[in-house]
């Protein structure tokens, strides 16, 4: 019952996203034949954010969704604005020091196994 409920919610959300993309003009259906003929063009559109449903005999059989670029716009903007700086090295990380209090986890696991 719970799985069916989750799937129903997934389909409702997916339908809402498709309707939104139809209104925005970022959704397109393409036949397999058309996709094969102009693959590089459709892949470029998907990379720009276009959602492509691939159809066979007017039935959707696959969906192509572009992968966002790996460059983080937010970090680039912070660096350009002077709010953050980077010296080119690896991040140092947080200076958190944990002090041992009580028993160690390995001791608890060994005790639990007995």
Structure characterization notes:
The chain is an alpha+beta fold. The protein has a domain of 63 residues: 3-Layer(aba) Sandwich (YefM-like fold). The chain has a 3-stranded mixed sheet with strand order 1-2-3. β2 and β3 form a beta hairpin. The mean pLDDT is 78.
Short description:
The chain has helices spanning 2-24, 32-37, 39-47, 73-81, 105-113; strands spanning 27-31, 51-56, 59-64. The protein is of the alpha+beta class and 114 residues long.
Which secondary structure elements does this structure contain, and how are they paired or packed?
Blueprint: H1 2-24, E1 27-31, H2 32-37, H3 39-47, E2 51-56, E3 59-64, H4 73-81, H5 105-113
Q: So, CATH architecture of the domain at 2-64?
A: 3-Layer(aba) Sandwich
Q: Ranges with pLDDT <50 over ≥5 residues? A: none
Overall pLDDT: 78
Strand arrangement within the widest β-sheet reads 1-2-3
How far from one another are the termini?
Answer: 38 Å
Strands, count:
3
Radius of gyration: 25 Å
Biggest sheet record: 3 strands, mixed
- Quote the beta fraction: 5-15%
Total number of helical segments?
5
């Amino acid at each position: 019952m719970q799985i069916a409920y989750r799937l129903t919610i997934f389909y409702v959300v997916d339908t809402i996203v498709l309707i939104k993309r139809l209104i925005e003009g970022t959704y397109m259906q393409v036949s397999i034949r058309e996709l094969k003929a102009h693959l590089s063009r459709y892949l470029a559109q998907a990379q720009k954010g276009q959602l492509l449903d691939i159809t066979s005999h007017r039935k959707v059989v696959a969906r192509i969704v572009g992968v966002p670029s790996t460059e983080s716009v937010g970090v680039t903007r912070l660096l350009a604005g002077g709010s953050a700086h980077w010296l080119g090295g690896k991040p140092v990380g947080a200076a958190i020091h944990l002090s041992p209090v009580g028993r160690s986890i390995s001791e608890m696991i060994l005790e639990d196994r007995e």
